[in-house]
Amino acid sequence: MGVRIERTEIAGIGVRHDVITTSGQRIGVVIYRDDRREIALYEPDDPDSIAQSIFLTGAEAETVADLLGHTAVLSKLSELSGGVAGLFTEQLILPADSKYLDGPLGDTKARTRTGVSIIAIVRGTEIIPSPTPEMILESDDVLVTVGTRKGLDELVKLLARTAT
């Protein structure tokens, strides 16, 4: 079943998006013209009566969206290895002093050296699935990986290598 979303323009104020959950709860996100956001929970019997709300700045809203989005995507990716004995999914942060920083992913030779596959890169709010060897690694990239425990440990050491 798809997610039901209703969009309503609020003249002079902004836009209201409502998500109706499978249990019938209405969650609203009001995006004001001044970049503020309001998350609202509505009374079950009145879709215009707010039971509780939280105001967020644009940056706070982006952080919450980032957490919700990444958590959902990464948990789905983690489910891929859930039933396979000896196979693990991990999210590894590229160290700030890694010799591979600002270079192509292919330079790591991760799969050849460790047997681990890098199946996605999370960069800020963007998720890059199936990165190519030409993908340039950037500071704070999170590498979504699948492999054995030993291979993942080896990849952590490989990524931690510094330029000498």
UniProtKB/TrEMBL annotation:
Can you cite a GO biological process for this protein?
Answer: potassium ion transport
Report the residue ranges that make up the RCK C-terminal domain in this protein.
Answer: 77-161
Q: Which SUPFAM superfamilies match?
A: TrkA C-terminal domain-like
The molecular function GO annotations come to: monoatomic cation transmembrane transporter activity
User: Know the name of this protein?
Assistant: Unannotated protein
